[in-house]
Write a structure and sequence with these properties.
single chain; mainly alpha; two-stranded antiparallel sheet
Length: 202
């Protein structure tokens, strides 16, 4: 399939028509395929978060090199305070997202339940990478929109792919966060009622 972005990653349509698989070729447990796929999504979302942070970091590197060399109105773009402030804020957000990414990866290594965290990570980094890359592209002026430039290629990769990919995750992530908060609230209420009943009967 001819994609707009991620062109080095092949995507194809698979058709299984009258395809019979021997029972001896079964992978995993029968009738538990969906569960296995959903479990794999947790590490996949971390990988997508890492890709987003990597794209954002590369965009910042390219932009810093550009604004230090590009001269306008008698000085380099980097000499403009507003330019430095904007780049610094994008860099700060990217660094914060990177630390959250490391935290989620650490949780996985500890065998913790990470559904809530990785859902929020993917939603966060999916939005952030678009903000950073598109913001960096603006500093390149018209050349940033030209085919063949590194910043244009980054924009071409992240905008159609990651931005579209986070839509479902944001909805599912919001649901995961909601139910996590709801569960914590129910546990708190149960604890309060337990203590109250103990005090009442005493």
């Amino acid at each position: 399939l001819d994609k707009t972005g991620w062109r080095s990653s092949d995507t194809a349509e698979l058709v299984f028509d009258h395809c019979r698989i021997p029972a001896s070729h079964l992978l995993g447990e029968e009738n538990h395929g969906f569960r296995s796929v959903m479990k794999n999504f947790q590490t996949e979302r971390i990988a997508l978060g890492a890709m987003a942070v990597g794209h954002a970091t590369q965009a910042l590197t390219l932009t810093l090199d550009h604004v230090r060399d590009r001269k306008a109105f008698g000085a380099t773009l980097f000499d403009k305070q507003a330019v430095r402030q904007r780049i610094a804020m994008l860099d700060a957000k990217t660094r914060a997202a990177r630390q959250y990414l490391y935290h989620c990866a650490w949780l996985v290594t500890q065998g913790r339940d990470v559904v809530q965290d990785v859902s929020m990570l993917k939603a966060l980094t999916g939005e952030l990478v678009n903000e950073v890359v598109q913001g960096c592209q603006q500093f390149h002026g018209g050349m940033g929109y030209m085919r063949g430039t590194a910043i244009e290629r980054l924009c071409n990769h992240v905008q159609p792919e990651l931005h579209a990919a986070i839509r479902v995750t944001k909805d599912l992530g919001s649901a995961a966060v909601f139910f996590a908060i709801l569960l914590a609230g129910l546990i708190w209420i149960a604890a309060v009622l337990t203590v109250w009943s103990m005090v009442y009967y005493l």
